[in-house]
């Protein structure tokens, strides 16, 4: 049908595939940008933690250096006596517990000595008789040290303080067993006491830091990665063979990493080596829980996802708007191209029409005048031949008029025209046409009916051109009903337009011919020239309207003419 083919063709210029591809590209770009933003934010959080850890390590390092320097240059305990005694008493109670669960052999005692870095462990009965020991004591001088426990005057005997920490001296502590009867004594050398003092001093320094929530641990390790102090005291004395920690010992700057232990949550760790008198002394480690970062990252991920969705909708909407505007532009260009092609064809037809008018019209006029003289002046006298003669001349005159009408249509199509718009009633125009065609329709057994509704408004129109368009449509309808039928004309009024529907009960138009009915010179009638509908369409379009044809074989044809109520003056030259 006319009026739809162009729009369908234009709509394909903005394919949904292009929209999907473009939307996919936008989505990929937004996702990549979102992931980069999340990664950048995550790195920013870890950088802040690393800076905080660096400041904390620097403060802690200064305390450690001062503490270790004091311990190395002095033989005093710096108020650490109570801490040392508590630590050694805890070791003695652990040995007591372990010996109850399983009698400790000399090899077991040797393992405990290495674990707690002490000189010896000795187990006695309540009378002071040695039961087991490692290493075996060279003399029994210990009995006098244990006398207060044996005689039940005290449950603890201590010989740790009050004298310098000489390397060759031994320092002892003993307790009366609680779980099983007996006495346990352990001894430390002066060097072991210094190392214990250093360990407890570092442990106190860690405790004095007052760690905030989110810091999992702080530890100090020596140059061999032996743990000297740790917030988890069960890890003190253990070695760690970790390539990252070895790299941290060799680096002058703090290093950081994110890792997940075998058991536990993900940890962000910062390490820094520290020195004593320009020599590598060990490594300070601070571990942060990544749990405090995850909620922030989750919130950022939600924000990024919302941003991706928002900008995707915005991008797709902008693409659709651009596509719609592009289609409108392409449609205008198509209309202009069609008008240019039509103008070129009409220009060619105009030249041809001028020649046709000059070469054919004058002979036709001469033939017409000659036939009229023959009809009037050479009428046979015999009555029997007169009727035949008049019929014959009438047929020739009719055909001459038909040829002249074809030439007139040809000239009308080929030359531009200008609408003479004025307010008029389409209803009255249709009534005049129905009266004009009624006799012809009745002679062919066709019922011509006008169903005019009330209140049909006035429109701006060229009544002469619009009459010609309606005549062409009505002629087509009448010619399509060779065996009689009904031609129904129904005008309707809408808010912005007037519609006139012409319905005939003819044979209909095959579907494969529907796209050709508006082509110039295409016709399905033996005597037609194929100019009626093109001329009608041109006139309707000049009025700013539309012409649509619907047809079904055996059911007839319906032609709908849409005319706007507010016709603009510009563009009336056609």
Short description:
Helices cover 51% and strands 19% of the residues.
Describe this structure in words.
With 574 residues, the chain is α+β, with helices and mostly antiparallel strands. Among the domains are: 81-197, 2-Layer Sandwich (Beta-Lactamase); 420-564, Histidine kinase-like ATPase, C-terminal domain (Heat Shock Protein 90). 51% of the residues lie in helices and 19% in strands. It has 13 helices and 17 strands. It has helices spanning 5-11, 16-72, 81-101, 106-116, 142-145, 147-150, 190-208, 243-250, 294-377, 383-414, 426-443, 463-479, 532-542, and strands at residues 120-124, 130-134, 156-159, 170-176, 183-189, 215-222, 227-230, 255-259, 267-276, 279-289, 422-424, 446-450, 459-461, 485-493, 497-504, 546-552, 556-564. A 5-stranded antiparallel beta sheet has the order 2-1-5-4-3. The protein has a 5-stranded antiparallel beta sheet with strand order 7-6-10-9-8, with helices on both faces. Helix 9 runs antiparallel to helix 10. It starts with a helix and ends in a 10-residue tail after the last strand.
Quick one: CATH superfamily of one domain? Histidine kinase-like ATPase, C-terminal domain
Find the structural class using helix and strand composition.
alpha+beta
* Secondary-structure arrangement, i.e. CATH architecture of one domain: 2-Layer Sandwich
The main β sheet shows up as: 5 strands, antiparallel
- What order do the strands of the largest sheet run in, or round the barrel if closed? 2-1-5-4-3
Class of one domain in CATH?
Alpha Beta
Strand content: 15-25%
Poorly predicted runs are: 1-12, 569-573
Oligomer: single chain
Number of helices, where a helix is a run of at least 4 consecutive DSSP H or I residues? 13
Q: Which whole number gives the mean pLDDT?
A: 82
User: What's the number of extended β-strand segments?
Assistant: 17
Q: How far do the termini sit from each other?
A: 23 Å
């Amino acid at each position: 049908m006319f009026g739809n083919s162009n729009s369908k063709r234009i709509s394909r210029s903005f394919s949904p595939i292009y929209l999907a591809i473009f939307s996919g590209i936008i989505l990929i770009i937004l996702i990549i940008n979102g992931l980069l933003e999340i990664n950048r934010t995550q790195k920013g959080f870890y950088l802040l933690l690393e800076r905080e850890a660096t400041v904390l390590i620097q403060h802690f390092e200064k305390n450690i250096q001062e503490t270790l320097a004091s311990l190395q240059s002095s033989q005093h305990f710096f108020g650490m006596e109570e801490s040392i005694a508590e630590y050694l008493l805890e070791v003695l109670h652990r040995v007591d517990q372990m010996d109850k669960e399983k009698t400790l052999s000399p090899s077991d005692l040797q393992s405990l000595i290495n674990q707690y870095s002490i000189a010896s462990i000795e187990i006695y009965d309540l009378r002071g008789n040695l039961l087991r020991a490692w290493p075996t004591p060279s003399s029994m001088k210990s009995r006098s040290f244990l006398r207060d426990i044996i005689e039940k005057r005290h449950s603890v005997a201590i010989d740790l303080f009050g004298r310098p920490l000489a390397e060759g001296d031994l320092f002892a502590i003993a307790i009366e067993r609680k779980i099983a009867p007996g006495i346990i004594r352990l001894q430390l050398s002066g060097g072991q006491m210094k190392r214990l003092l250093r360990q407890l001093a570092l442990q106190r320094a860690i405790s004095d830091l007052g760690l905030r929530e989110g810091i999992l641990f702080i530890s100090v390790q020596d140059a061999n990665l032996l743990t000297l102090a740790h917030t988890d005291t069960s890890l003190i004395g253990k070695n760690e063979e970790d390539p990252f920690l070895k790299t941290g010992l060799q680096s002058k700057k703090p290093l950081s990493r994110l890792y997940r232990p075998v058991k536990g949550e993900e940890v962000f760790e910062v390490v820094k080596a520290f020195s004593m008198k320009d020599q590598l002394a060990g490594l300070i480690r601070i571990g942060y829980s990544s749990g405090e970062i995850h909620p922030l990252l989750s919130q950022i991920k939600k924000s990024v996802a919302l941003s991706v969705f928002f900008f995707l909708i915005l991008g797709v909407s902008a693409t659709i708007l651009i596509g719609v505007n592009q289609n409108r532009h392409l449609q205008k260009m198509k209309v202009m191209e069609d008008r240019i092609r039509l103008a070129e064809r009409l220009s060619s037809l105009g030249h041809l029409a001028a020649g046709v008018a000059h070469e054919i019209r004058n002979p036709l006029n001469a033939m017409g005048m000659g036939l009229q003289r023959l009809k009037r002046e050479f009428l046979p006298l015999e009555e029997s031949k007169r009727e035949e003669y008049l019929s014959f001349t009438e047929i020739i005159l009719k055909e001459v008029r038909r040829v002249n009408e074809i030439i007139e249509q040809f000239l009308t199509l080929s030359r531009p025209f200008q609408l003479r718009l004025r307010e008029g009633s389409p209803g009255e125009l249709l009534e005049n046409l129905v009266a004009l065609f009624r006799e012809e329709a009745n002679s062919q057994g066709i019922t011509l009916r006008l169903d005019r509704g009330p209140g049909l408004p006035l429109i701006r129109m060229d009544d002469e051109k619009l009459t010609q368009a309606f005549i062409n449509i009505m002629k087509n309808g009448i010619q399509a009903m060779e065996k009689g039928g009904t031609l129904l004309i129904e005008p309707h009024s809408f808010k912005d337009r007037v519609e006139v529907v012409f319905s005939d009960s003819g044979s209909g138009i095959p579907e494969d011919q529907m796209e050709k009915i508006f082509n110039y010179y295409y016709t399905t009638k033996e005597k037609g020239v194929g100019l009626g509908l093109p001329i009608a369409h041109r006139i309707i379009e000049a009025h700013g309207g539309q012409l649509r044809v619907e047809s079904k074989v055996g059911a007839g044809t319906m032609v709908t003419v849409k005319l706007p109520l507010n016709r603009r003056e510009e563009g009336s030259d056609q």
